[in-house]
Amino acid sequence: VSLTVGSLRDTADKWKIPPQAWKAFRAVSFRSLLFVGERDLISDGGDALLRLNVVEFHQIFSPMLAAMGDGSSMEAWLAATDVLADVELRGGARYGRGKPIFNGTFT
């Protein structure tokens, strides 16, 4: 079975995955896709992953976290992706969910 995802490198760059964790990120991505399902990931986004129980979640994501290195590397990665995670996974919960307010002019 072969599966090709053309934007996996772009996704790794977007999420600031360190080079030493790229291989593990690829494995986690495919494991997530196969375990959770394409349909659920597309329709529910990050919520589909958050519905996993603790054991399932750790089985899928632990290899990538281990590949990132030591605790300070992990903390730096978490800090660098905090806003991205808020916007992408939680729909910008910290920044309001209301309709955007237009404060400009049309020309």
How would you describe this protein?
With 107 residues, the chain is mostly helical. The protein has helices at residues 8-14, 22-36, 38-44, 46-50, 54-67, 71-90. The protein starts with 7 loop residues before the first helix and ends in a 17-residue tail after the last helix. Residues 92-107 have low confidence and may be disordered. Helices cover 64% and strands 0% of the residues. It is globular and about 35 Å long. Helix 2 runs antiparallel to helix 5. It contains 6 helices and no strands.
Short description:
With 107 residues, the protein is mainly α. The protein is 64% helix and 0% strand.
Any chance you could write out the topology, listing elements then pairs?
Elements: H1 8-14, H2 22-36, H3 38-44, H4 46-50, H5 54-67, H6 71-90
Helix pairs in contact: 2-5
